[in-house]
Amino acid sequence: MPDDESQSLDEQQSTGYVPGDTWGNAFRFILGRITYEGNLQMRQARDDRNEAADCARCEKDRDYLLMYSPIIRFMRQNINKLGADLHSENIRCRKCTTLQKGGFDKDFGIMLCANNLRKQGVVEDTLAHEMVHAYDHLRFQVQWEGNLRHAACTEIRASTLSGECRWLREFWNRGQWKFTQGFQECVRRRAALSVAGRPECKDDVQAAKVVNEVWDSCFSDTRPFDEVYR
Predict the structure, then answer these.
(1) What's the DSSP call for residue 118?
(2) In contact, 110 and 170? CB cutoff 8 Å
(3) Which of 5, 121, 132, 222 has the maximum number of C-beta atoms within 10 A of its C-beta?
(4) 104 in Cβ contact with 134 (< 8 Å)
(5) Burial category of 44 from C-beta neighbours within 10 Å (exposed 0-12, middle 13-18, buried 19 and up)
(6) Helix or strand or coil: residue 111?
(7) Distance (Å, rounded) from C-alpha 93 to C-alpha 114?
(8) Is 130 a catalytic residue?
(9) 16, 22 contact by CB (below 8 A)
(10) What whole-number distance in Å separates Cα of residue 204 and Cα of residue 196?
């Protein structure tokens, strides 16, 4: 049987990723010689190496936004009115092992994925998105487990109100060029992706169907804003 060292070499040859070879990996990536699996390994190694710096940057951005961002301050004030608060103790920056940017948990608060948030503007959009979920949980008693319609509605509202689907964000970050209906298409796409990732959702077809079923009422509901802010 092959020993562990030969297995490791075989794996490196098959994926193109060599642990510790930062520059070599970078060149192989540019030349297209690193596979998808190798790219994931390279990303994980980078995130492990930069964890402390990523979290420190995320916490600095979080604290700044809590103090100065109009949308974050507004959402926090409205969450306060519902008897809760979001602050530096329950908005936590952590290294995530997936490509998600953040998450909301009704018991623990908000998590920001520091390794996936490289710019303060993206931190702001992500934090606003999760704060909409927090508001919906308090205001509408969202059933997070087992109710896909509730999940779809809060995802539609979060993508609509956070600013993550405004045209400039779509253009610069995701290469979406459409002017007409681009905003609604972005909201639908992101909501369906989130719903499809829930364990009770069978597939992306069901996710799209549920989003369509609640679209009219949820897309037009801009509470606590008077209208779409960004």
Answers:
(1) -
(2) no
(3) 132
(4) yes
(5) middle
(6) strand
(7) 6
(8) yes
(9) no
(10) 5
Q: Per this entry, what is the length of the chain? A: 230
Cα dihedral: 211, 214, 217, 219 (round 10): -10
The answer to whether the beta carbons of residues 126 and 71 sit under 8 Å apart is no
Contacts of 58 (CB under 8 A, 6+ apart): 93, 112, 114, 117, 123
Per-residue confidence (pLDDT) for residue 45, from 0 to 100: 86
Contact between 141 and 200 (Cβ < 8 Å): no
Q: Give the residue ranges of the chain where pLDDT is below 70.
A: 1-13, 168-181, 229-230
Distances (CA, A) of 167 to 99, 133, 170, 217: 22, 22, 5, 23
Q: Which residue has the tokens 């103790």?
A: 89
What is the DSSP track for 136-202?
Answer: HHHHH---TTT-HHHHHHHHHHHHHHHSTTSHHHHHHHH-----TTHHHHHHHHHHHHHHHTSTT--
Indicate which residue of 124, 130, 155, 170 is catalytic.
130
b/e 169-184 (16+ beta carbons within 10 angstroms → b): bbeeeeebeeeeebbe
CA atoms of 220 and 102, how far apart (whole Å): 24
